[in-house]
Amino acid sequence: MTVEDEPDWTNRDRAYSRQVQRHMERVLAADLLVVVFPIYWQSTPALLKGWIDRVWNYGFAYGRSAPRLAGKRILWVGLAGATAEDPIVAPMVELLEAQLSDGIAYYCGFAKSAVAVLPDAEDQPQSVDDRGNLIVGKAPAGEELATQRRTFDRRVLTAVDEFAT
């Protein structure tokens, strides 16, 4: 965040940097946003949080009686290294829903927001045992790996299609 992009709570029509303005224009032009990110420590990576802080700024994403993002839809697609059977996945979804849908999208006037957490995003299955030890499974290779990746890609597209309809 540069001084040029810091919010000015006395001026909701403040002109931000040209780079940020271009991002704002792209967000305004979209009816549906799909944000794909790796899940780090049950949250978004710092780069995504910084983008939100910098682009979804006062006067643009919030701070108006008629929000500019009202009526838009957003799907947050979190890629998790945890396996689908890992008990951490359900609380992960709850935390991300609270942060992203309730804490950000709702506040910015989005008409619809949802989080899709896609576990098994790593080539090697990962889990943690009851003592906190990381257990990394064997990575597939060749055609098995290609099949695994195609299957994952289909899961992503299915999540987007289900949200968009």
Strand content: 15-25%
CATH C-level category: Alpha Beta
Instruction: Briefly note the structural class of the backbone.
Output: alpha/beta
**CATH fold type:** Rossmann fold
Low-pLDDT sequence parts: none
Q: Sheet with the most strands?
A: 3 strands, parallel
Total E-strand runs: 5
How confident overall, as mean pLDDT? 92
- What CATH architecture do you see? 3-Layer(aba) Sandwich
Number of domains: 1
Shape: elongated
Brief overview:
This protein is α/β, with parallel strands linked by helices and about 160 residues long. It has helices at about 20-30, 45-55, 90-105, 140-165; strands at about 30-40, 75-80, 110-120, 125-130, 135.
Description:
With 165 residues, the chain is α/β, with parallel strands linked by helices. It has a single domain (14-164), classed as Flavodoxin domain (Rossmann fold, 3-Layer(aba) Sandwich), CATH 3.40.50. Helices cover 38% and strands 16% of the residues. It contains 4 helices and 5 strands; from the N terminus they run αβαβαβββα. The chain has helices at 18-29, 46-55, 89-105, 142-164, and strands at residues 32-38, 73-79, 112-118, 126-128, 134-136. It has a 3-stranded parallel sheet, sandwiched between helices. Strands 4-5 form a two-stranded antiparallel sheet. Helix 2 links the parallel strand 1 (32-38) and strand 2 (73-79). The longest helix is centred in the last third of the chain and has 23 residues, at 142-164. The model has no long low-confidence stretch (mean pLDDT 92).
